[in-house]
């Protein structure tokens, strides 16, 4: 086979494999996207319940840009206003997403309207390579009140992930304070 | 013209399947795929999940590589295999995210990392590219199950020693939540849940396996030695008998 023909055949084969792969992935995406979106909604609702309690419901949902805040909001995408059954506003939950060299994290950070303080954090996506260490040694102690959000996270076994979570929550805290100002 | 067919060795399929589980176990014998083995063996459920996803990817990629082995030019073998493996990993990841979201959250980045697991590319290159689809399927099944069993073995010790018992139904939420507390609370050794604990368990299992292997070889060598001595003794006795007989005849 001449070199030219060989190159063409090689390109065609690799192109065909890549095209078939693309089609298979597209079909899988079609089959799973609705369920993945529903899972995401369920995770957000579960996160809101975890932070604000059983009777909490999302009453409004806004993009962070709609608030026109002056502070840096690079981690925050959405702000949820949370109310209880009696239509009393409980607080705000911020959907924040960030990543570092250990992977992506997306979480909900909840803030109490009455005390204007941080309540809890609920992880939506945790793709850190030290995912469970981060949860066991930083997120759970933070939610149980054993750690303070302003404490410098060191020696938690997933220090970089913990630092990222801290940055995201502190940014959400600044945003909450500016919204309530 | 007479067509000569290569005769398959009797019991080849069985041997091909079992080699991945015991003789060529990817984790405990070939020491491959150790990264996810250390990271995803905190619980038996996570180990089963990782093992299942890994086996599915291995079966699909091995079969497709075997099917296309005559079509893929030599020059683009590796990139083509990587595209095939990455495709199956992406598909498996999507379906896990959709239908086993708790497993997806638990395994996290390690699902995507199956793409770079050297066992998958290794089997495609070393076996599937040279054998037919059926044999490649059996090879993948054996290797996948072997890897899964190895992960479960590690998870058994890590969960038992690190958490004091086993929990089922936390990741696979379609089964009822069951906790078997074997070691009383407060007596568990949490270190076994950390990466250091994983290394210790892995090292101890390898040490036990090496001990068994060496002991077997020692026993075999002893038996062979005794057999040799017995044969030499028999030959000596026979020679002595023959000499006595010859002397008597004279």
How would you describe this structure to a colleague?
The complex is a heterodimer of chains A (181) and B (250). By secondary structure, chain A is α+β, with helices and mostly antiparallel strands. Chain A has three helices and five strands. In chain A, helix 2 crosses helix 3. The mean pLDDT of chain A is 92. In chain B, 68% of the residues lie in helices and 3% in strands. Chain B is mainly alpha-helical and 250 residues long. Chain B has one domain. At the A-B interface, helix 1 and helix 2 of A face helix 4 and helix 5 of B.
Question: Which characteristics define this entry?
Answer:
heterodimer; A: 181 residues; alpha+beta; 3 helices; 26% strand; B: 250 residues; mainly alpha; two-stranded antiparallel sheet; 68% helix
Summarize the structure.
Chain A is of the alpha+beta class.
* Biggest beta sheet attributes of chain A: 5 strands, antiparallel
Ends of chain B: how far apart? 66 Å
Residue ranges of chain B: pLDDT <50 for 5 or more in a row? none
**Overall strand count of chain B:** 2
Anisotropy-based shape of chain B: flat
- Described by its quaternary structure, the protein is heterodimer
Backbone structural class of chain A = alpha+beta
**Element-by-element helix/strand order of chain A:** HEEEEEHH
**Count of beta strands of chain A:** 5
Count of individual domains of chain A:
1
Radius of gyration of chain A: 22 Å
Distance between the termini of chain A: 76 Å
Helix content of chain B: 55-70%
Unreliable segments of 5+ consecutive residues of chain A: none
Structural class of chain B: mainly alpha
Major beta sheet summary of chain B:
2 strands, antiparallel
Shape annotation of chain A: elongated
Percent in strands of chain A: 25-35%
Number of contiguous helices of chain B = 9
Give the chain pair forming the largest contact, with residue counts: A-B, 28 and 27 residues
**Average pLDDT across residues of chain B?**
91
């Amino acid at each position: 086979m001449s070199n030219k023909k060989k190159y063409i055949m090689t390109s065609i084969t690799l192109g065909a494999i890549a095209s078939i792969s693309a089609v298979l992935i597209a079909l899988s995406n079609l089959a799973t996207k609705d369920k993945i979106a529903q899972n995401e909604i369920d995770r957000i609702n579960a996160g809101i319940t975890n932070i604000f309690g059983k009777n909490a419901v999302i009453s409004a949902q806004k993009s962070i840009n709609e608030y026109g805040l002056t502070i840096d909001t690079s981690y925050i995408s959405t702000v949820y206003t949370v109310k209880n059954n009696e239509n009393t506003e409980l607080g705000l939950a911020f959907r924040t997403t960030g990543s570092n060299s250990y992977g992506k994290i997306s979480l909900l950070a909840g803030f109490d309207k009455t005390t204007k303080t941080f309540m809890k954090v609920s992880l939506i996506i945790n793709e850190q390579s030290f995912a469970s260490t981060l949860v066991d040694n930083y997120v759970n102690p933070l939610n149980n009140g054993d750690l303070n959000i302003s404490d410098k996270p060191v020696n938690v076994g997933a220090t970089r992930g913990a630092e990222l979570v801290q940055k995201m929550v502190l940014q959400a805290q600044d945003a909450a304070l500016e919204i309530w100002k | 013209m007479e067509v000569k067919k290569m005769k398959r060795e009797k019991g080849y399929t069985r041997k091909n399947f079992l080699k991945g589980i015991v003789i060529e176990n990817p984790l405990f014998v070939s020491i491959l795929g150790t990264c996810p083995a250390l990271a995803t063996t905190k619980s038996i459920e996570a180990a089963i999940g990782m093992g299942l996803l890994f086996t599915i990817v291995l079966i699909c990629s091995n079969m497709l590589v075997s099917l296309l082995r005559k079509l893929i030019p030599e020059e683009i073998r590796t990139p083509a295999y990587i595209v095939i493996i990455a495709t199956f990993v992406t598909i498996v990841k999507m379906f896990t995210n959709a239908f086993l979201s708790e497993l997806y959250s638990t395994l996290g980045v390690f699902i995507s990392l199956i793409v770079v697991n050297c066992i998958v590319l290794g089997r495609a290159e070393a076996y599937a590219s040279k054998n037919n689809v059926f044999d490649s399927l059996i090879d993948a099944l054996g290797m996948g199950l072997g890897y899964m069993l190895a992960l479960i073995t590690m998870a058994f010790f890590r969960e038992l020693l690190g958490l004091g018992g086993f929990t089922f139904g936390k990741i696979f939420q379609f089964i009822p939540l069951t906790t078997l507390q074997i070691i009383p609370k407060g007596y568990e050794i949490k270190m076994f849940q950390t990466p250091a604990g994983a290394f210790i368990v892995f090292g101890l299992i390898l040490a036990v396996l090496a001990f068994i292997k060496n002991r077997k070889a020692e026993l075999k060598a002893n038996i062979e030695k005794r057999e040799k001595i017995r044969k030499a003794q028999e030959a000596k006795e026979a020679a002595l008998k023959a000499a006595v007989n010859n002397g008597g005849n004279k």
